[in-house]
Amino acid sequence: MTLAGKRTIVTGASRGIGRAIALRLAAEGARVVLTARDAAALAEARETIRAAGGEAYPMALDLRLPEAPAHLAAFALEVLGGIDIVVNNAGATKRGDFEALTEEDWRDGFALKFFGAVCLTRAAWPHLKKSRGSVLFISGIGGRTPGAQFAIGGSVNAALLSLTKALAEAGLADGIRVNAINPGTIRTARFEKRLETLARQRGLRSAEAEAAFVRDAGVTRIGEPEDVAALAAFVLGPEGSLFHGAILDLDGGATKTL
Question: Tens digits of per-residue pLDDT, 57-95?
């Protein structure tokens, strides 16, 4: 149990990548605060962790609200007694043509995934200094390889990658490690909807549509949430202690640039 006793916050922990990360870190011994907007899904994740012998504390809130990040950090301090790890995973952004995306779409895209992460990290930073802890951003390969349909997400992810490098330098003096993981295409509910659309457009069965997606994208396979969770556990654990300011592409070869 490489993270035994580590006091951890995981955002966006109700489903997909965030849920997988929370379950994996708890399995490695971390004591985890789970947060997202879906209280019922958080409760289910908590029970899954507890049934496996882990420790989890859910808090349903919206990190887009100005007071929410500080409230979450205070809750973590109350139930855990300190903060060792913050995993900033929450946030989805809208895809679409540039002219069709509204100003509100852009504001909302940055509100949770970027500003929510910034404000939570700021609230947790003094406590991470005390524990010589870690911050991990779950960004995305769109920040390094922009696309026309992913203008908002690519911009948000690029901002997170820049923030990772800036906070890594600050972390040298404060004893805090800061890193980022860039997942590629992961089998989440959002991907399943995209796959359904592709299958319908091309008249394919689901397995055929996935094979076509993999071929067209030039990747080895579709990733699973557990793939991201395994890398997160490694980076945050003792074997990953040399990672600092690292931006790790976990994408099956989708990123072709240096």
Answer: 999 999 999 999 999 999 999 999 999 999 999 998 999
Residues 6+ positions from 12 with CB-CB distance below 8 Å: 18, 35, 36, 89, 90, 91, 138
More confident residue, 146 or 38: 38
Tokens of 27: 């399995």
State pLDDT tens for residues 236-256: 999 999 999 999 999 999 999
Domains and CATH numbers, the chain: 7-186+224-249 (3.40.50.720), 187-222 (no CATH)
**Model's pTM, two decimal places?**
0.96
